[in-house]
Structure to design on (320 residues):
């Protein structure tokens, strides 16, 4: 990462102006030019350091459902089960973590009913019961990763 | 289980079209809201007003960069969980979420003996040592040390993508 990358990532996590020339306004705040901001963003996207430049949606408020799901997977079956779980397009992230419940993933669906179908589908494919841990409450955090 | 998000917000047709167009990202041109307006057949002002309204309703949490943590040097991520008495979880959750290094913070249901924890947070850091020090600081500054807890570092990431929504296919070009 170069200095411009850092300026952009650190500067553009907290919001973006809603005015006619938002890149120009943002660039002025960051002490760079509009064209270096636009080029820098494109470069960050091309190199895969950003997944996106744009809105972060609130899935539930759009009518979708997000849930965190945990499974206890025997270590010798881990890769096989991961492949089965990841075959559902609704599975958005999947991590191996160091705990008896060792597989943790997110299910994102447009309709709540679909979440239950995916959970049942995972159980019938893997013969392991997924534990559904939907959020009850989110405590707001600002996003401030310093790079 | 009923959660705070059980009731979907009402969005009109124009909002859905705008959200679908935004999903691909904000156009990287001098006047991105004008470009969006041209695509959707409305004015630059209307796009700005609608995005503003969607932000106020909380449907768009924010506009900005969405970072791939591992690619920008945040190699370690830990899920840290506590079993907090129900009457205290709101206060402690709110306190925990104020810490700079906490990137997500939720209350979730417990699940019997297999999973007795109800307060969750994610900590992303450059390396494991840093994250361990941050966890210790969270425990100390929020007075969480007395509660049962667990730290789950990630070993491998199998799939990482943002959620996508099939909002309104007729705006996909």
């Amino acid at each position: 990462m170069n200095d411009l990358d850092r300026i952009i990532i650190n500067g553009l996590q907290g919001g973006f102006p809603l005015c006619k020339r938002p890149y120009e306004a943002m660039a002025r705040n960051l002490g760079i030019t509009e064209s270096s901001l636009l080029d820098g963003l494109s470069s960050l996207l091309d190199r895969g350091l950003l997944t996106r430049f744009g809105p972060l949606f609130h899935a539930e408020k759009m009518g979708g459902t997000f849930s965190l799901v945990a499974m206890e997977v025997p270590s010798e079956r881990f890769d096989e089960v991961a492949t089965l779980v990841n075959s559902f397009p609704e599975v958005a992230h999947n991590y191996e973590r160091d705990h008896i419940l060792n597989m943790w993933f997110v299910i994102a669906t447009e309709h709540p009913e679909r979440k239950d179908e995916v959970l049942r589908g995972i159980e019938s494919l893997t013969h392991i019961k997924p534990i559904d841990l939907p959020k009850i409450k989110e405590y707001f955090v600002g996003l401030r990763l310093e790079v | 289980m009923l959660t705070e998000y059980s009731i979907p917000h009402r969005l009109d047709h124009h909002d859905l079209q705008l959200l679908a167009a935004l999903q691909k990202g904000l156009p990287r041109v001098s006047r991105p809201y004008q470009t969006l307006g041209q695509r959707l057949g409305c004015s630059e002002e209307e796009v700005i007003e609608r995005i503003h309204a969607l932000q106020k309703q909380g449907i768009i949490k924010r506009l900005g960069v969405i970072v791939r943590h591992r690619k920008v040097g945040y190699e370690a991520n830990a899920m840290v969980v506590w079993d907090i008495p129900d009457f205290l979880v709101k206060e402690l959750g709110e306190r925990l979420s104020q810490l700079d290094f906490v990137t997500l913070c939720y209350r979730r249901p417990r699940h019997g003996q297999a999973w007795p924890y109800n307060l969750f947070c994610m900590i992303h850091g450059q390396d494991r040592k840093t994250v361990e020090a941050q966890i210790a600081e969270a425990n100390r500054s929020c007075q969480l040390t007395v509660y049962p807890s667990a730290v789950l570092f990630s070993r491998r990431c199998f799939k990482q993508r943002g959620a996508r929504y099939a909002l309104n296919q007729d705006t996909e070009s």
The two ends of chain B are 38 Å apart (CA to CA). Residues 1-8, 163-173 of chain B have pLDDT under 50 and may be disordered.
